[in-house]
Amino acid sequence: MTESMHASASPGQYALSPIVAGVWRLADWTWSAAERLTWIEGCLDLGVTSFDHADIYGGYRVEELFGEALALSPSVRERMQLVSKCGIRLRHPARPAHRIKHYDSSALHIIASAEESLRLLGTDYLDVLLLHRPDPLMDADEVARAFDELRASGKVRYFGVSNFTPAQFDLLQSRTPLVTNQIELHPLHRAPLTDGTLDHCQRRRIRPMIWSPLAGGKLFTSEDVAARRVRGMLQQIAATHGVSAATIAFAWLLRHPSRPIPVAGSGRLEAMREAVAALSVRLDAQEWTEINTAGTGMDVA
Question: Which positions carry the signal peptide feature in this UniProt record (predicted)?
Answer without folding.
Answer: none
